[in-house]
């Protein structure tokens, strides 16, 4: 059977009386499967002294690798999926390559062997970013913070670790933690954000939003 390209296919349809000539490729990230995808970010990635964008992109590549897929998406598609600019994706991928965390192969990006071994050896708690979070317009730091909160809250119980603990775990400043928490609550990614204070006592408790998903047919 002879192979023909997309243009030839469109011409074939026209020649054979088809009135609908729009031929589009359905990318997996626009399907229900893509909207059920989660980005798993290990503690080994979280503690790296890299940007929050780099942590999310590295976690994204790692998550695809774990289900047997190479990251074949171009920069534009990755940017649209993660709600980051195409320029940000370009500079982030370049930086991750220079840091030897990822490698560019003929078909796309994969984790380097060294990075994969480091991540596989991680025994501490990971965080999970569902589509509704990583595909939002939130800053990357806020997305990571939601993942940290949800790793213990899961939409059912309160997370109340100190800002100092979160700062050391996520490598973001305490002022950013406060600002991101307010942003998450204002945008309804948290259902509870309560501050309790008294004599020599101050604790904040948050509960994350739970996202209900319909099963994939």
Strand content: 5-15%
Q: Tell me the major beta sheet.
A: 2 strands, antiparallel
CATH class of the largest domain, named: Mainly Alpha
Structural class: alpha+beta
What is the CATH superfamily classification of the largest domain? Winged helix-like DNA-binding domain superfamily/Winged helix DNA-binding domain
Report the radius of gyration as a whole number of Å.
Answer: 21 Å
Distance between the termini: 32 Å
- Our count of helices gives 11
Helicity, as a percent range: 40-55%
What sequence of helices (H) and strands (E) makes up the elements?
A: HHEHHHHEEHEHHHHEE
Strand tally, please?
Answer: 6
Under the CATH scheme, the architecture of the largest domain is Orthogonal Bundle
Observed structural traits:
Arc Repressor Mutant, subunit A, single chain, globular, two-stranded antiparallel ribbon, alpha+beta, two-stranded antiparallel sheet, 217 residues, 2 domains
Commentary on this structure:
The protein has 217 residues and is of the alpha+beta class. The protein folds into two domains: 27-131, Orthogonal Bundle (Arc Repressor Mutant, subunit A), CATH 1.10.10; 136-210, Winged helix-like DNA-binding domain superfamily/Winged helix DNA-binding domain (Arc Repressor Mutant, subunit A, Orthogonal Bundle), CATH 1.10.10.10. Helices cover 47% and strands 14% of the residues. It is globular.
Secondary structure layout plus pairing:
Blueprint lengths: L5 H10 L16 H4 L2 E4 L1 H4 L5 H15 L8 H8 L3 H13 L3 E3 L4 E3 L1 H8 L6 E4 H4 L5 H14 L9 H8 L3 H13 L3 E9 L2 E8 L9
